[in-house]
Design a protein that fits this description.
Shape: elongated
Helix content: over 70%
Strand content: under 5%
Number of domains: 2
Largest sheet: none
Amino acid sequence: MVKFCNIKLQIFATLYYICLLKNTINAMNKSSKKRIKFNEIAIDILIKRYGYSIDYIRKSLRGDRTGIMPDILIKEYNKLDSASKDAIQNKTKDLNE
């Protein structure tokens, strides 16, 4: 009976170790983290206009920063991004005609 309990304990310990190892590998896998791609031209315009660093602007757009200025940056970025997308669509239509 004692040998049987030791074997069960070893199996349980092995399975527990495998689960911990799997979770560690998944946590360290950088490809599982979603990357947000921003419009670099719009970000450059915001940098020149307000003088903030690119890091601060990206964190503001992701929502990591709160306050009045990040809200302004988000609104202005959305306007610039939609305007650039519209310009690309208009140019594509002109090229297709």
